[in-house]
Amino acid sequence: NAGVTQTPKFQVLKTGQSMTLQCAQDMNHEYMSWYRQDPGMGLRLIHYSVGAGITDQGEVPNGYNVSRSTTEDFPLRLLSAAPSQTSVYFCASGNLGGYTFGSGTRLTVV
Amino acid sequence: AQSVTQLGSHVSVSEGALVLLRCNYSSSVPPYLFWYVQYPNQGLQLLLKYTTGATLVKGINGFEAEFKKSETSFHLTKPSAHMSDAAEYFCAVSLGGSARQLTFGSGTQLTVLP
Q1: Do A4 and A94 meet the contact criterion of CB atoms below 8 Å apart?
Q2: Helix, strand or coil for residue A75?
Q3: Mean of the per-residue pLDDT values for chain A?
Q4: How many CB pairs under 8 A join A and B?
Q5: Using CB atoms, which residue from A40, A58, A90 is nearest to B43?
Q6: What is the pLDDT of residues B59-101, one digit of tens each?
Q7: What was the pLDDT predicted at A58?
Q8: In chain B, N or C terminus with fewer CB closer than 10 Å?
Q9: Is B103 part of the contact surface with chain A (CB cutoff 8 Å)?
Q10: Does B46 touch chain A (CB under 8 A)?
Q11: Nearest to B49 by CA among B97, B112, B96
């Protein structure tokens, strides 16, 4: 089925560990983005990309890196995990007609 | 820059009653406006959107919203609530063009009482 695929669905990390959250879309969208969702705060934009090779920072970029080597993939890297990065992470792709979200990755940093 | 305010973090209605979820936005240019719904442990699903044209937009599951520029509002309504409508609802704004990133409100949890 067409859509946005995120892996893994759940992850527990120790403080200081690094990891990559994967995001792939098969709708040929140029625009992709990463959000984190925390209770009472809605979704906050971490990084976004308007096409392969182009990325930019969102509202809360510190502690995260992204790259966009292909149209389909937009991985999010946590360089040195901190407890403050415990959250649910959503990847989205789309255009002005609307955005499709993945099912999320629930990350716990202990 | 743009921002979104959702009035009421929790709203309860009886089954069959009117649903009204409030959203006000701030934008320096004509905005694109969205409502998303999130069911427990799931991603976000687009309910409806306003980009240009008709200010009353209809979405899925019987929801609709009206863009009111003078009031900078985009409230979500449904004439008759159903138990399956219980979820969290997010209003979002985009400036469009090259600034396509969405800015979300903090969300409204809708409870439907039997």
Answers
A1: no
A2: coil
A3: 93
A4: 56
A5: A90
A6: 999 999 999 999 999 999 999 999 999 999 999 998 766 557 8
A7: 92
A8: C
A9: yes
A10: yes
A11: B96
